[in-house]
Design a protein that fits this description.
Layout (H helix, E strand, L loop, with lengths): L8 E3 L2 E3 L7 E3 L2 E3 L2 E3 L7 E3 L2 E3 L2 E3 L7 E3 L2 E8 L16 E5 L16 E4 L7 E3 L8 E2 L7 E3 L46
Parallel strand pairs: 1-4, 2-5, 3-6, 4-7, 5-8, 6-9, 7-10, 8-10, 10-11, 11-12, 12-14, 13-15
Length: 193
């Protein structure tokens, strides 16, 4: 199977086992394409559009997305370590299912149309982001940082290991469950008995 080249228009194509490790991919459009078991580790993806695409069992660790549109994209059981998503653009519309999204940065973004299902988001940063109505379904949020973010109506009820400050985030009508919700009291300098 041929790899897509920079500047190409790609529609309804299924790619499998491609290796873009450390390569540059720019000015491409992908519409309704799927990528299965592909390696994008350390790749630089510039000025590309991904619409209605799927990444299945792919490695996108430390990939750099520069000015790239991610619209209605599914990431399924993929490895996405150390990605700074805000260089892609202000808005992404995506579903992450069973992914490893550790040490990611989601700063200064609108993530209201993003879903996280059964993902590990350990040590990721959500700073100055809109996360209204986002559902974190069965996610591990260990050591995640939520700062100056709008988490109104966000659902954390089935997730674990989260901590966020009510002083530095908007938590209006956010949904939590016990015993995990006790972590919200940690920054209040109170004692529980």
């Amino acid at each position: 199977m041929t790899s897509p080249e920079s500047g190409s228009q790609n529609k309804n194509i299924s790619y499998a086992k491609l290796d873009f490790d450390g390569e540059v991919l720019e000015d491409c459009v992908f519409y309704d394409c799927s990528f299965s078991r592909c390696n994008f580790q350390f790749a630089e993806i510039r000025n590309c559009d991904f619409k209605k695409c799927k990444f299945i069992n792919c490695n996108l660790s430390l990939a750099k997305f520069d000015n790239t549109k991610i619209i209605n994209v599914d990431f399924i059981e993929s490895k996405l370590l150390g990605i700074n998503w805000n260089t892609a653009g202000v808005v992404i519309i995506a579903v992450f299912k069973g992914c490893i999204l550790e040490s990611n940065s989601f700063s200064d973004m609108n993530l209201t149309k993003v879903k996280f299902e059964k993902c590990s988001l350990k040590e990721s940063v959500f700073s100055n982001s809109k996360l209204q109505k986002v559902k974190f379904s069965e996610c591990d949020l260990g050591q995640c940082q939520f700062h100056q973010s709008d988490l109104s109506y966000a659902d954390f009820s089935t997730s674990r290991n989260y901590f966020m400050s009510a002083d530095s985030n908007k938590l209006h009508q956010a949904v939590f469950s016990l015993p995990e919700a006790v972590s919200l009291l940690a920054n209040l300098d109170i004692k529980l008995k």
